Amino acid sequence: MRAPLVPLTALAFALACGGPSKGPRPSPALDVAVRSPALLPERISPPRAAQSFAVLRDRVMGELLADEPSVARDLGLHDEYDGKVAPVSADAIAARVGRLRQSAHDLAAVDASSLDPDDALDRMELDSWVASNLFWLVDVDTFHRVPQAYEPLFSVNVYLDRDYAPLEERARRLLVQEEAALLEVKHMRENLTPPLSRPATEVAARNMAGFASYLRGDVAKTMGGLGDDRQRLRFATTNEALAKEADRFAVWLKTEAMRGDQSHVLGPQRYAKLLRVQEGLTLSLEEFARQNEDNLAANAKAYEALSVRVKEKPIKEGELFATATQLVKETRAFVVDHAIVDLASDDGAVVRETPPYQRWNSASIEMSGPFDASRTAFFQLTRPDRSWPAKERQAYLGSIGDLVGTTIHEVYPGHFVQGRWTGRAPTRVQKAYASYSFVEGWAHYAEEMLIDEGFGRDDPANQLAMLHGALLRNCRFAASVAIHTQGATVEQVEKRFVTDCHQDLATAHEQAVRGTFDPGYFAYTLGKLQILALREEAKTRLGEQFSLRRFHDAILSHGSPPLALIHDRVIAETGP
Predict the structure, then answer these.
(1) What is the spatial distance between Cα 357 and Cα 359, in angstroms, rounded to a whole number?
(2) What percent of the chain has pLDDT over 90?
(3) For labeling, which of 145, 355, 361, 417 is most exposed (least CB within 10 Å)?
(4) d(CA 235, CA 238)
């Protein structure tokens, strides 16, 4: 999974127990939002009549990125945002909420009928971006309730992974950022209000321990010997201090997790609001859940029929990276030879092991952003935990067919291809904004589409693995709804991953836990179903003139907005 470059809209997934619930209880996050001066509404200034949309757009986007410099760096805006961290004091959070509310007010006052199509799309994307951030900051109250909100203070991999400047210059900027982060870490425990969600805090504790290992390992090894004696000493002192803060935070979180609760539960009202602000959906929760259940039933029927006559081929751990490298080459060649989609760049992705702070996720793509001058990309795969029994380790690795699906999803024609197309989007907003359901929906759609188009058709195990992957995403969707609106426990949804979606125990547990801190992970199936529906509509309208390549190019050419925002343009641009 590649975390879309949406700021707080997808906080939990970009970072990535108890007994049955007796029904929704008052949300502690909403309680804090009422009581805390940091989150009380600030006075909203009236919009200035003479302000053009271009001026407003630049101001709103500039404020959004300034409040999340880690997102800006991921996008490739290094000169403006390297070395910076977002302040997280109570006053800083209050000021941020005030800016967001002002932006929402000003965007609502824009006369949309006066805008050209790209400006109109920019306005809708900014409105979604602002509304989503307000949801996470106020309705969910992330800085008081969600430890993952503080991970950007420790995230420095961009300085190592992106070759946008000489390494010595990146090392200097990294040092400035680490020093700035050390000034903010004291606010983490000041802000967080126990009891915290037990499963989400357990994951956050592991992530923080991973950050400490990464800082002392790859970061120190790569950056520690650069510069003069003064810089090397300054770096060694600062880097170790930040690693110690990550260690301390991890220990504190581990303790808090033991007395944690189920406060990750959004409840039906906030869940419905998440659907509105993240996806623009206003359908009932029952209808929302039903579209997934129908798709789950169809996928389960097909999987079970195929599994009785097809044997999966397990991947050997020692061959994982070599096999993945070969699959990257093969999927790229197929995409080109069969005119699946135009490639927006000539570069490729290098296979490597997942860094320690990201190992809650089995696979991902780490790639330069749309504003980066130079291009890098890493297809990251996670080895199973060495403490697991051999059977669980093998189950986590999966089959060769699973790796085929993962390669399609992450690289060709999935996240990597889509990410490079984003760099060609016509406006800065369209380059910067990413809808969770678009990004993950496209990659998940690609898995099914490429198999349907014939990739690996000679081995039915690839089809079986594709269906297995689809069932995983179906159960994510079901788990999100169950945990956050139906009172289900992690254990209850974990069982469904095994029984209904045919996942192994280790995967089922990790995926069930993920649902507590990533409620939006329904986006995979939702986005795929939306793309399939749009493709069917285009086929119906165009008949024999329909071109799969033109359809895919049209979808990818506007960045990564919610599909509803570009429906009409995709239909028009798919035509001859």
Answers:
(1) 6
(2) 82
(3) 361
(4) 5
Q: Over the stretch 332-376, which tens digit does the pLDDT of each residue have?
A: 999 999 999 999 999 999 999 988 766 666 889 999 999 998 899
Q: Cα–Cα distance between 11 and 125 in angstroms, integer?
A: 17
- Under 8 Å between Cβ of 418 and 334: no
Which among 140, 162, 153 has a CA at the least distance from the CA of 519?
A: 140
| CA pair distance 392, 538, nearest whole angstrom | 44
Spatial CB neighbours of 503, under 8 Å, sequence gap ≥ 6: 471, 472, 475, 497, 511
Which residue in this structure is represented by tokens 């309680």? 31
- Amino acid letter, residue 283: L
Phi, psi of 414 (to 5 degrees): -85, -125
pTM: 0.89
Phi-psi region of 458 (alpha: psi -120 to 50; beta: other; left: phi over 0): alpha
Neighbours of 305 (CB within 10 A): 12
Tokens of 384: 């199973």
| Beta-bridge partners for 377 | 367
Distance CA 59, CA 66 (A): 10
* DSSP one-letter code for 317: G
Tens of pLDDT, residue by residue over 482-507, are 999 999 999 999 999 999 999 988 88
Contacts of 332 by beta carbon, 8 Å cutoff, 6+ apart: 343, 348, 411, 412
Any idea which residue has 């700035």 for tokens? 180
Pairing of strands 377-381, 363-367: antiparallel
Residue type at 316 in one-letter notation:
K
Which residues face 197 on adjacent strands?
261
DSSP per residue over 156-178, as a string? -HHHHH--SS-HHHHHHHHHHHH
Enumerate the β-bridge partners of residue 380. 352, 364
* Torsion, Cα of 427, 432, 437, 438 (10° steps): 40
Sheet holding 377-381, edge to edge: 350-353, 377-381, 363-367
CB 559 within 8 A of CB 371: no
With a CB cutoff of 8 Å and minimum separation 6, the contacts of 295 are: 470, 474, 525, 529
The β-bridge partners of 353 are 381
Do the beta carbons of residue 145 and residue 209 sit within 8 Å? no
Q: Spell out the SS3 assignment of 45-88.
A: CCCCCCCCHHHHHHHHHHHHHHHCHHHHHHHCCHHHHCCCCCCC
Pairwise CA distance, residues 303 & 465, whole Å: 9
* Amino acid identity at 233: L
